[in-house]
Amino acid sequence: MSTESVNGAELYYESSGDGVPVVFLHGVLMSSRFFNEQQPLAEGCQIITLDFRGHGRSEKTETGHTLPQYARDLEAFLDAQGLSDVVLVGWSMGSLVAWEYVSQFGTDRFRGFVSVEQQPLDLEQEGYDHGVFDFDELRGLMELAQTSPHELAWSLIEQMLVDESAAVEQRFFDEITRVPPSITSAILFDQSVRDYRRIVPEVDVPTLVCLGEDETMLENAGVEYVGEKTPDAEVERFSNSGHCPFLEEPEAFNEVVSSFITNRCHP
């Protein structure tokens, strides 16, 4: 078990392989365990998976559950590990953390960015067509987090996957319910109301946007928006995936990411 102490929190991480460092950032209430299928990438890269504070096997701190703090934790982790010229892979909230990181620290540490199934803002806003829910729906999620965490977990799972086994669904349930309700409420609200539309165009490194075409959680147009607004981006579509193409189509996902790193992410 490997941990790194950053900003008063013990963060769990795993590292394997050698070469270009590729850092995977998971979604809200999830963990690095969902990137097990990406280990074949370690044949040509250094694969690093990290659990945010409060998630997975990282310390369940009472405070610090905001995207700005998660981004500061990421910067401290990269510093402690001596990592530069990294390819950052952000899934769902992981992309939001990446955009928050860019807003605070810029892109000097990056040689590439992979955004998986995320848009810059989840809450519906006037003049913005890609919101996932309105405020009343968000308030309902907040209530579930405090009154019925298991019901919240299953409602999220139903929106993520197209057709996966009961064992995979159970893995999601186990990781979601590992997060204490107080942390769930804090980070789920924070990540849902942050707006990174201004930051997306500031990502000035080669970018791969991965889209699961089955609109289980997000509308395709919201993910396509990221591809349109990022200066040097290409969009890769996964026709048999919902919110988790790295898990639902792992071989295709790994091939696409490996090709992106080899062909686009030069030092």
From TrEMBL:
Keywords: Hydrolase. InterPro entries: AB_hydrolase_1, AB_hydrolase_fold, AB_hydrolase_sf, Epox_hydrolase-like. GO terms for molecular function: hydrolase activity. It holds the Pfam family Abhydrolase_1. The keyword Signal does not apply. Gene3D superfamilies: alpha/beta hydrolase. It comes from the Archaea. Residues 21-250 form the AB hydrolase-1 domain. This is Alpha/beta fold hydrolase. It comes from Halorubrum rutilum.
